[in-house]
Amino acid sequence: MWFPAGFPITVLGLASQVPLEPHPITPQAAMPSAYTPDFAFKEGTNIFTPKDLVELVRPGTGLANPAGDLALVQVSKYSLSDKKNTKSIYIASVESSIQPFEIPLTDSGEAFWLDSRTVGHAVAEGEDKDKVTTLYAISVKYETEYSLVPEAPVLVGKFPTSTAANFKYATKAGVLVFSDYVYSDGDLAAVKKHDEAWENKGDTAYVFDDTYERHWDTWVGPKRSSLFSVTLSKSPDKTWVFGSEFVNLLKGTGHTCPVEPFGGTDDFDVSETHIVYTVKDPALPPAWHTKQNVYLIDIHGAGRPVELTSGKHGATRSPVLSKQGDKAAWLQLDKDGAEADRAQVVIYDLTKHVKYTLTKHWDRSPDALQFSEDGKAIYFTAGDIARIKIFVLPIPPTPSESTADPDLATAYREPIELTSTGAASGAQVLPNGRLLFTHSSLTAPNNMYVIRGLEQLDLLAPESREPGVAKLQVEQLTRFAEDALKGKSLAAGEDFWFEGAEGHKVHGWIVKPPGFKKGEEKKWPILMLIHGGPQGAWEDQWSTRWNPNIFASQGYFTIAMNPTGSTSFGQNFTNAISEHWGGRPFEDMQKGFKYILDSYPEVDPDKAVAAGASWGGYAINWIQGHPEYGFGFKALVCHDGVFSATYNGFSTDELFFCSATRSRESSAQFNEEWGGRPWDERAKQNLAKYDAANFADKWSTPMLIIHGSKDYRLPETEGISAFHVLQQRGVPSRLVIFPDENHWVLNHMNRYVDASPCNAAVLMKGGHCSLKWNYEVFRWFDKYLNTE
User: Fold this and answer.
1) What is the pTM of this model?
2) Are the beta carbons of 754 and 768 closer than 8 angstroms?
3) Using an 8 Å Cβ cutoff, are 459 and 372 in contact?
4) Topology classification of domain 488-644+691-745+766-785
5) What pLDDT, in 10s, does the model give residues 37-51?
């Protein structure tokens, strides 16, 4: 059913974005890089400004204690005036009305539960070569039934390095499991000696005989991540006793866990006896394979790991163990080399040694698994219609033999929806029919919630399949940003649907600016945001980077479509962009844009702009070369976008994504994004059609380009190349380079604060440092829209 190639037609009766006369092929004068007070953000008590966004509290994901009556969350808050990020641990009561209390931290570190009344806090301390990770215990007790108080931190012990992380504690076993980086000898105690030798080797060269040579934002050195265990228990006098032997659980296996660059505690799980973990297949080149295997190993490191996966498959993630220790589960993709393939829940019966797939026929991709307390059900989150919801499935009786497609009754095939709005994460099963989760939306950052009454839910009853049927109670435990956002006129976002390519229904969000009124004469400028991935989505979720309400609050009627290739609308829709990057998604966007203009006369089509990052940046470059689409954009913003897909197929770190290369061990051809390596015939044909660089001769719209020099997914030459095209064609353009940023702009001062002159004298005169990333973007739009 999917899809023919792209189409060179104009579906909108709008003015073309290319002028009738060609641009003179002369370079434009360089724009000043210093601070110029030629633009100011819209501000007001009801306006959510970029400054508000950077200074807003940023809660992490909630974590409940073993008893399920307290939950902690780590929180950060940045101050523009102090140029400082403060960190805290907040602890909330799950079962009382006690207000969450704050434990301020001098250093960030990592917090986790040691027992139901003790928080472990691991933090790197010391200077340079003497720096190590120190573990503290913070006891929490009820002072009265209305208040909780923490005691002073108590030193528990020290790790040999400063890079220990991802802690999980097996309380009954008295074993702390964590990850750390070691050299080829696997000896944690020898890391500092090897570090010193590496630093003093006399040259700065990295030498490689295989990929990865660099990954995400880091040149790959001689160290690899491994899992360790160390004993940790309470003595009779209630003091914590920290062991001295750090057991490398993966030594001699060739396994690296967590999986770089984003792996963490979700890459392994701990029971009282074992650890289950996922790693890249050690026999395959990691840069052009996604295949990961799942292993089980004794928590003390006795014996060798036992592989639970088998046969051909792709990536795995979120391995978990049941509380009873009789089952393991994980998420598994079918295809090696396809990171956006549909994830399926796999159950492994550890007593019968039988493995089976649970969600073979459910057209969504589960994430973040959790067994129920009794091990008879499994909970997970999954994207569904631009929301991230919590679902539950009962676990069927184990089949007689392993199978990828067991014959299951309907009750075991159709998950029950427990939440329906926003974005849920960190679902954690609690005793007595409860579940803790973290939730955000387009109008609020993370807060902790609890669901009650799960014991009343009959998972096998047909009526439980209907959303909202179960009489569950949902209670909000924290309200971190409520006061700061009060009166800020944030828009909750409105769904809109339209007919896209091949007659398929396509979804989008409308985020209206403050003061918008239906039928008013005032015309609003329109901004089209394009998401990355390309297998991604604009969801009902908070973002500290591309936040739709920031754009709306600056006066833009903001639309964010989920065209072909987007996730959470079924796997066929997601897959349909592969080998069609410049095709169906742009038919969708044209039709969606026309739908908005036809439906909202308040929008001014002569004041239209667009912005995108990553694949969204590719989309901006592609639109530049296709004025026949008729969007009529007056200005564009491309953040870390693909200029030449051909070049990117050679240069990107994860070759499986853009190159879809052929394995050295197999003749099987991956046919995902481009249908092969850049020199393979099928890929060459696709690149001839859909490489944005091939259409640079048509570029004409003023464009701002932003790129990070440490972006190894899309190297900075992609942005520089696009800038050179525009400059040589005489098209107004500006290049903003962040030398210390990766594919994302994360540093507060880079992301938000102008790096140009801004000192005490400026502040004393009533001025302020401009918010850099946002300043550049909104200044660029304002310059070419001439908005008031």
Assistant:
1) 0.92
2) no
3) no
4) Rossmann fold (3.40.50)
5) 578 899 999 999 999
